[in-house]
Amino acid sequence: MLHARLALDPAATVGAVNPRLFGSFVEHLGRSVYDGIYEPAHPSADENGFRRDVIELVRELGVTTIRYPGGNFVSGFRWEDSVGPKESRPRRVDLAWHSTETNEVGIHEFSQWLENIGSELMLAVNLGTRGTLEALDLLEYANLPSGSALADQRAANGRSAPFDVRMWCLGNEMDGPWQLGHRSADDYGKLAAQTARAMRSFDPSVELVVCGSSSASMPTFGEWERTVLSHTYDVVDYISCHAYYELKNGDVGSFLASGVNMDHFIESVVATADHVKAVRGSDKTMAISFDEWNVWYNERFETLDKITGVDNWPVAPRLLEDVYTVADAVVFGSLLISLLKHADRVTSASLAQLVNVIAPIMTEPGGPAWRQTTFFPFAAAASNARGTALRITVDTDHYETDVYGAVPVVDAVATIDEASNVALYLVNRSQDESVEVTAEIGRLNGTYSLIAQSLHDDDIFAANTLANPERVAPRDNSTARIDGEHFSVTLPPVSWTEVLFSPGE
After folding, report:
1. DSSP-assigned letters across all residues of 321-366
2. Distances from the Cα of 64 to the Cαs of 171, 332, 438, 455, in angstroms?
3. Largest Cα–Cα distance of the chain, in whole Å?
4. Is the pLDDT of residue 304 over 80?
5. pLDDT of residue 504
6. Can you tell me the distance from the alpha carbon of 285 to that of 275, in angstroms, rounded to the nearest whole number?
7. Which of 71, 194, 403, 486 has the CA that lies 20 to 30 A from 92?
């Protein structure tokens, strides 16, 4: 057995945990919307055609904000297509995912679904094939109470009160050659700055997200952020990060260390943003919206699932329907740890995506909905990671990886709320050995009770499927102990663990 020692100190604060850190993402892609959240013929469908079983699972997951409607989809999106009588809405081809968009679900329907769930809408505007005027029109349609043609149009379409959307994304992944309207950093930065100023002239209080790099592996990474922020720093609130990870060539050790890459990504963007801040002599600190992150088997999509053909534009095809394993869930949990470790700068994040498409929730048309393995770490953290993130010092063994070099076996973060409830999150990256974790908890001041659960399986490739939807779930970890001012817990190999400390008599 390996050993790790933690320093758990409530004074070692990182920053407040913004509830928006537990956001998600719904794109008009594959079966995310149609046959995902929306299936009028399903036995559980409500009066608006949305699946009640999915609604319950989304509530259980605890997502706070949902980014919509893309993603790559937004760069070809005409928002006007998605409002008004459904029977009058046009069908369009979507070049991003080579599909047909029926526009049966649009801004009104999606906003109503969000209100039913209790989540906030984060809306993306098209700066790929459209521009400043169309973004202003959508903002006015969404947020002006009354008194203009667009506000009156919204009321005529069944919504008298404004949607009052607070967060707006200024396009999507504009650094990517795959993106409709792909631009250089200089050209995009100018357009984003122009659009941001125009939107702020309508409402200075809107929160704006400018596109950062779509991946830290992009050849323009770093220089893209510097150039874009040099144009937009004074008029936006966030710069975005996007990152996806997958198991490649059977290299489990490197895959389990994916959080190391996310840490470096965040810290690099912070350094670049702070450089621009210093050059401009600004007193504003730029926040990060990590509004796409997940495990995604993109190589599988590119080689097996990609749709082609000028006469082939299916409606809601099965795309990006990755089946997640225990190993995937452990990596996923480590990515959540990375986000929490940087809670002072990452104040918004969107798990990509929510239903069916690289998602924690899966559905079968006319059939059940179920939780993937990645559902559990997210739901636990969204429910219990409250208050302030704590910096955890971890003294642990290291192991060698082909991609990242020597990597700590154990990674950890904790949060503490105003009532002194502590949530501790741990991952064990070792494929062979358990780790006994110990910590001094005297600085927590008081008596605590423990609840601990671990997600682990002897088969790290076990998964929840339509045939066996409850194969994997977290189990109580009975090794968690408090003895005076000493805490200990044993982490199984390839595992994610949550320990909740509750103050008591």
Report:
1. -PPPBHHHHHHHHHHHHHHHHTTTTEEEEEEE-SBSSS-SEEE-TT
2. 21, 18, 33, 23
3. 70
4. no
5. 79
6. 11
7. 194
Give helix 375-384 / helix 52-61 axis angle, nearest 10°. Answer: 60
CA dihedral 35→41→43→48, nearest 10 degrees, is 80
For the chain, give percent helix, strand, coil, nearest 5: 30, 30, 40
CB 69 within 8 A of CB 77: yes
* Confidence grade of residue 447 (pLDDT, cut at 50, 70, 90): confident
Q: What is the mean pLDDT of residues 124-152?
A: 98
Percent of the chain clearing pLDDT 90 (strictly above): 95
Task: Write out pLDDT tens, residues 38-81.
Answer: 999 999 999 999 999 999 999 999 999 999 999 999 999 999 99
Tokens of 20: 């928006």
What does the block give as tokens for 238? 């966030």
Residues 99, 100, 102, 106: is their CA dihedral positive or negative? positive
Nearest to 167 by CA among 275, 261, 291, 49: 291
Quote the tokens at residue 485. Answer: 């001012």
The whole-angstrom separation of Cα 372 and Cα 356 is: 10
**What value does the mean pLDDT take over residues 373-390?**
98
Strand partners, 117: none
Both tokens assigned to 208: 């704006």
Task: Give the whole-angstrom CA distance, residue 61 versus residue 371.
Answer: 9
Give the pLDDT confidence of 138-150 residue by residue, as tens digits: 999 999 999 999 9
Lookup: tokens for 247: 């198991």
CA 227 to chain centre: 25
Please report the pLDDT score of residue 445 as a whole number. 80
CA distance 442 to 301: 50
The three-state (H, E, C) secondary structure of 388-417, written as one string: EEECCEEEECEEEECCCEEEECEEEEEEEC
Distances (CA, A) of 369 to 7, 35, 114, 465: 41, 11, 18, 10
Tell me whether the omega of the peptide bond preceding residue 69 falls within 30 degrees of 0, making it cis. Answer: yes
CA distances from 398 to 248, 259, 260, 410 (A): 21, 14, 13, 8
Catalytic residues: 173, 292
**Residue 37 confidence (pLDDT):** 98
Q: What is the mean pLDDT of residues 151-169?
A: 98
